[in-house]
Amino acid sequence: MSISASIDFRVIQSNTGKFITPIKTLEILMEYGWSLQRDRYVYYLPLGKDDPFDCISEVISIESLLKILRKKETQSELIVVSSTWKDTNIGGSLFLYDEKKALEDSINTPIGFSIDGSRKKIGIGSANEMTDVNWYLEKLLPVFNKNGMYIEYFEYSEHI
Q1: DSSP designation for 56
Q2: Section 58-73 average pLDDT
């Protein structure tokens, strides 16, 4: 059985009302405990690509990855990068839009987190296991409630 789960949200700066930038989003998440590497590998959407199915996996440093992602941000390209919580395999893929691209494409939630890999689950047996969405919300949303930012909107969906 295939399960698709995602959390989409919008973080804005309280003094300007503007979306938080993709790179700032990544920096905050990494500072809080999210990692962009799994066993030295990073999974991301390369420069010049906008189709999430074009993601690649390679061994590169975080500094090199951020350099590529900064170029994508300046070109208003979709940023997709895999992220896991601390030293676990629990995580997902981040989908990050800059404000210009989000507005052009009528995207209401410029930060998406597609839960994949080793999902954190709750349930009463294998047939009824669902994603422990509270675990993800506790690890994702509170990090933005500081430095003049706040969560303006979020939405969770799961399809079995």
Answers
A1: E
A2: 96
Query: 79, 69 in Cβ contact below 8 A?
Result: yes
Give rounded-to-5 percent helix, strand, coil for the chain: 30, 35, 35
CA atoms within 13 A on the CB side of 13: 10
Distances (CA, A) of 140 to 77, 109, 119, 148, 153: 23, 14, 15, 16, 13
Q: Which two tokens stand for residue 14?
A: 């309280």
- Per the confidence metrics, is the pTM higher than 0.70? yes
In the block, residue with structure tokens 């999974």: 43
64: which DSSP letter? H
Instruction: Give start and end residues of each alpha helix (H) in the chain.
Output: 22-32, 62-74, 99-104, 133-140
Q: What residues are paired with 159 via a beta bridge?
A: 4
Question: Which residues are CB-neighbours of 58 under 8 A, at least 6 positions away?
Answer: 41, 42
**Domains of the chain, residue spans:** 4-124+140-159
Residues 1-49: tens digit of each pLDDT = 578 899 999 999 888 888 889 999 999 999 999 999 988 899 999 999 9
